[in-house]
Amino acid sequence: MKYSMNLLLWGPQIDDSLFPTLELIKEIGFDGVEVPIFNTNPAHWFNFRKKLDELGLACETDTICGPSEHLISPDPAMRRHTIDHLKSALDCSLVLGATKLMGPYHSALGVFTGQPATPEEWQWAIEGIREVADYAESLDITLGLEYLNRFELYLTSCGDELIRFVDEVNHPHCKIMFDTFHANIEEKNIGDTMRKAGDRISFIQLSENDRSTPGKGNVDWEGVFKAIKDIRYDGWISIEAFSQKLPVANIWRKMFESEEQLMRDGLAFIKSNLS
């Protein structure tokens, strides 16, 4: 098993100012980091990659799509723009040495029609992700698609929907990234959903129900860790926690003592349950 820390804990600005944080992440004992790709200019990431290599930290990447990049828009120009945007995020991932680009980018975060996804929207997403997966394959990168809860996304908002989606994309470089925060809201049983997804899961984010320190809230951690063992998962386990530094997460009160405390306690909790 390899252990990672999602850099969104420190907010959306990912640049050289985080170098001391990367040093602390390494010192605490993480094997790597999740780097959010908001800046899709590959040149932005060369210095960051150099620092990761100096520290011996591996890297996987995440990205999202907002209202200006919507893969299920009725506008063909918007859909084409979104595919190009995701290919640029893959180019940045290549600079960083990532083998996975993850996130809920099969549709736009926070964009709703007031209705469930239509068959046409579903097909637009399938076709778009299939093209992006072809490009990812050429870079030896695998997509890790994520479902979000019903308040953030409507194309896929539970495990069954995302499993169906990935199966219909039917591409060896399109897998699932599983996030316990959204599963804790949407699933009847998180462990059963993980077992159903099985080897489609290529990355796991462990996130508490309030986005604070894993093990300090009400997620069914016993069920989660049992499922990880049941599916014989042996890849990346990442802590995804947010703070007031990330406005889009809508966190308005302090949820933990410090970032360092969260990392130390969270990593110890996870290792004690997966050893």
TrEMBL record:
Start and end residues of each Xylose isomerase-like TIM barrel domain: 22-272
Identification of the protein by name: Sugar phosphate isomerase/epimerase
Source organism (scientific name): Dyadobacter chenwenxiniae
The keyword Chloroplast belongs to this UniProt entry's keyword annotation: no
Keywords attached to this entry: Isomerase
Top-level taxon in the UniProt lineage: Bacteria
PANTHER family noted in UniProt: HYDROXYPYRUVATE ISOMERASE
SUPFAM superfamilies: Xylose isomerase-like
One term of GO molecular function: isomerase activity
